[in-house]
Amino acid sequence: PLVLGIETSCDETGIGIVRGTELLANIVSSSMEEHARFGGVIPEIAARAHLEAFVPTLRRALDTAGIELRDVDAIAVTAGPGLSGALMVGLSAAKGLALAAEKPLYGVNHLVAHVSVGLLTPASHSAGSAGGASGMASLPENTGALLVSGGHTEILRVGSLTSDVQLLGSTIDDAAGEAFDKTARLLGLGYPGGPAIGAAAASGDPTAFRFPRGLTMPKFEGSAQAPGPHRHNWSFSGLKTAVARAVEQFEAAGRPVPVADIAASFQEAVVDVLTGKAVRAAREHGISTILLGGGVAANQRLRELLAQRCEAAGIELRIPDVSLCTDNGAMVASLGAQLVAAGIAPSSLQIPADSSQPVQRISV
Ligand code: ATP
Ligand code: MG
Ligand code: FE
């Protein structure tokens, strides 16, 4: 199916177009720079920016794919989770388009969309290739997903992207991306923190500081036979505090803060515990393929260490192109195409925005 995907849950206005698993267009307009001076996303600014960017972004996506709205089989839109006002802009626009063009509407889960992006392949331009309902690549058996984003950090079992997603573990406090953003602020590296820390870390020593790996003590993890309460969960708030202490010590001593070493050591701590726990959860739950998704999946060190540890554990790993990790419309279109192909009923045109939609609720 040919599906238009609309994403407005945070500060990216994203419009993507896919044919089955084939990526035809992915245009993103971000209001990130408007939020940078506040050190975080301001919901009202984000919503207003979506309103302004929506139509030009849609126009560019349709032109890139070489289609018109009337050509699409369905319209998919992020219904949640995310910022309410931001979600409402995309949902309202999607409903208007669906109504006017007489297309089915699919309100989808942003988190499952982050994972679904892993199914996409670049446009092949060869007639009759992957794309139609029959050309949908199916998910391997025993698939799991590591979702690492600005607001979520979860390890999932994915029985089906359209009907069966289960939570195996998650963060009990900060999300991985949030930890990057807060730590970057502490280090004076600006917003968003993920790319800034990654860049600073490149010239630092990851072994300079031994920062804590949250929830890895035996009382939390237990053993495979007797799992502790947080065996597959993460915690990043202690790590953030440890970084703050380290910075304070240098400042109190009147010495320059070794920003690159702290950034590299922080990044190593996050990536070590993310990959270690994800691979172990996968092994213990019989997962043989992991899809990586979410903005933090753009992190080079995470991509590298996860690939190493998956290979060592005999787990197949699928990592999306960096451009598809942070919020975009292609991921929403990808999940929409899966829903259409699976014969799932479209959404009502009265669906609300659900700012805290849980990952198990794939479509609304
Ligand atoms: P959610 O998907 O949970 O609703 P979100 O949509 O705000 O949250 P994403 O767009 O998926 O989050 O990801 C943004 C996050 O990814 C930010 O916290 C950002 O710092 C982080 N990030 C982006 N690039 C990198 C990178 N190269 N390394 C580490 N983190 C990164
Ligand atoms: Mg964003
Ligand atoms: Fe996201």
From TrEMBL:
Cofactor(s) listed in the protein's UniProt record: Fe(2+)
Binding residues annotated for substrate, in chain numbering: 147-151, 181, 194, 299
Binding sites annotated in the UniProt record for Fe cation: 110, 114, 327
Class of the enzyme per the UniProt entry, highest EC level: transferase
Catalytic reaction equation(s): L-threonylcarbamoyladenylate + adenosine(37) in tRNA = N(6)-L-threonylcarbamoyladenosine(37) in tRNA + AMP + H(+)
Subcellular location: Cytoplasm
Database matches in InterPro entries: ATPase_NBD, Gcp-like_dom, KAE1/TsaD, TsaD
Keyword Protease assigned: no
Co-factor binding details: Binds 1 Fe(2+) ion per subunit.
Keywords attached to this entry: Acyltransferase, Cytoplasm, Iron, Metal-binding, Transferase, tRNA processing
Keyword Transferase: yes
E.C. number(s) listed in UniProt: 2.3.1.234
Gene Ontology molecular function: tRNA N(6)-L-threonylcarbamoyladenine synthase activity
Domain annotation Gcp-like: ranges: 22-333
Purpose of the protein: Required for the formation of a threonylcarbamoyl group on adenosine at position 37 (t(6)A37) in tRNAs that read codons beginning with adenine. Is involved in the transfer of the threonylcarbamoyl moiety of threonylcarbamoyl-AMP (TC-AMP) to the N6 group of A37, together with TsaE and TsaB. TsaD likely plays a direct catalytic role in this reaction.
HAMAP family the record matches: TsaD
Family as reported in the entry's similarity comment: Belongs to the KAE1 / TsaD family.
Protein name: tRNA N6-adenosine threonylcarbamoyltransferase
Species: Nesterenkonia lutea
